[in-house]
């Protein structure tokens, strides 16, 4: 099994830029609204880890919205963590083979998925599209 991504030594400036990119994509109301229609009954708190930075995203009947940065040990249902390089490659307009999908990234050892996987797997395409929302040229 590949080594886990080294989250502790990830480059913070690059990770911070990628977090900002994720948050900007979540502020695109038309893309988020179209995506949200596909998982109306889903209610989860998703954690997205970019390097050492973690952000939580609330998915509920009220929509999809990033939660403010919180102190450690805040609850989430499942977490998708990856190196900044993995997110950067995944969010290319046309990602390279092996960098194009969250499962390809887990196989490479660049990403891991932790927590309650039931809501993740029950709404797999929704979450894959949500996590690809910052992709260059993405239109949910």
What's the quick description here?
By secondary structure, the protein is an alpha+beta fold. It has helices at 12-26, 29-36, 84-90, 102-108, 117-122, 124-132; strands at residues 44-50, 53-60, 63-66, 78-82, 111-115.
Describe the structure in your own words:
The protein has 140 residues and is of the alpha+beta class. It is 37% helix and 21% strand. The chain contains 6 helices and 5 strands. The protein has helices spanning 12-26, 29-36, 84-90, 102-108, 117-122, 124-132; strands at residues 44-50, 53-60, 63-66, 78-82, 111-115. A 5-stranded mixed sheet has the order 3-2-1-4-5. A hairpin with a 2-residue loop joins strand 2 and strand 3 (63-66). The radius of gyration is 14 Å and the shape is globular. The termini are far apart. The model is unreliable at 1-10 (pLDDT under 50).
Name some characteristics of this structure.
140 residues, alpha+beta, 6 helices
Could you give the topology of this structure?
Elements: H1 12-26, H2 29-36, E1 44-50, E2 53-60, E3 63-66, E4 78-82, H3 84-90, H4 102-108, E5 111-115, H5 117-122, H6 124-132
